[in-house]
C-alpha cells in the first residue's frame, strides 16, 4: 500500500517544505519585531492600517481584517491592544454606528514605518537574490485573492 507519493519522504513534499520555510521566516520576522514591542499579528494589522491610511482610506475593523487576511474577531482584539498601546484610535463610523473606523496616532505612524522597514530588511536577507522570483511565483499561486 502506497501512502505517499514522495518516496524520498517529507523533503519531497512542497507543503512540508513550505511549512518549514514559513516557520523559519516567522522566526526572522519575530526577531526584528521584538525590539519594537510588536507581535507578528500586531505588525501585520498596524502595517495594513498604515497602508490603507496612506492610500487615503480610513478603514473600519472589517476592512482592515480583509486587507490583512485575518479573522474579524481576532482583529478586533488586536486592534484593542494596539489602541491600548497608543498606536491607533478607534472612532464610531458615521455611516454605521456599529463599526469603528481606525486611524493611526502619530506614534503609531512612526512605529509602523520603522517596523515595515525592519521587516522588509529581514525579508531581503531571508529571501536574498531570489526575492523577486519568489514574489512572482507566490502572486501567481495566490491569484487575484490578495487585496492591493
What does this structure look like?
The chain has a two-stranded antiparallel ribbon. It is mainly alpha-helical and 148 residues long. It is built from 6 helices and 2 strands, in the order ααααββαα. β1 and β2 (96-104) form a beta hairpin. It has helices spanning 14-33, 40-54, 61-68, 72-84, 106-127, 131-142, and strands at 88-93, 96-104. α1 (14-33) crosses α5. It is elongated, with a radius of gyration of 18 Å. The longest helix has 22 residues, at 106-127.
Structure in a nutshell:
This protein is mainly α.
Characteristics:
148 residues; 61% helix; elongated
Largest sheet: 2 strands, antiparallel
- Topology as H/E string? HHHHEEHH
| C-alpha geometry | elongated
Q: Roughly what is the average pLDDT, rounded to an integer?
A: 94
Give the helix level as a range of percent: 55-70%
Number of strands: 2
Residue windows where pLDDT falls under 50 for at least 5 positions: none
β content, as a range?
A: 5-15%
Q: Give the CA-CA distance, first to last residue.
A: 46 Å
Structural class: mainly alpha
Radius of gyration, rounded?
18 Å
Number of helices: 6
Major β-sheet strand ordering: 1-2
Helix and strand layout, with pairings?
Elements: H1 14-33, H2 40-54, H3 61-68, H4 72-84, E1 88-93, E2 96-104, H5 106-127, H6 131-142
Antiparallel strand pairs: 1-2
Helix pairs in contact: 1-5, 2-3, 2-4, 2-5, 3-4
Amino acid at each position: 500500500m502506497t501512502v505517499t507519493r514522495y518516496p524520498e519522504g517529507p523533503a519531497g513534499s512542497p507543503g512540508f517544505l513550505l511549512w518549514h520555510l514559513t516557520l523559519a521566516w516567522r522566526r526572522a520576522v519575530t526577531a526584528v519585531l521584538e525590539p519594537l514591542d510588536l507581535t507578528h499579528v500586531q505588525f501585520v494589522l498596524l502595517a495594513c492600517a498604515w497602508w490603507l491610511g496612506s492610500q487615503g482610506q480610513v478603514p473600519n475593523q472589517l476592512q482592515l481584517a480583509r486587507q490583512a487576511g485575518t479573522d474579524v474577531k481576532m482583529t478586533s482584539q488586536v486592534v484593542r491592544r494596539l489602541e491600548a498601546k497608543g498606536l491607533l484610535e478607534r472612532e464610531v463610523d458615521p455611516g454605521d454606528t456599529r463599526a469603528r473606523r481606525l486611524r493611526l496616532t502619530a506614534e503609531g505612524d512612526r512605529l509602523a514605518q520603522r517596523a515595515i522597514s525592519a521587516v522588509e530588511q529581514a525579508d531581503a536577507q531571508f529571501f536574498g537574490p531570489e526575492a523577486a522570483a519568489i514574489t512572482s511565483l507566490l502572486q501567481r499561486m495566490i491569484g487575484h485573492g490578495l487585496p492591493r
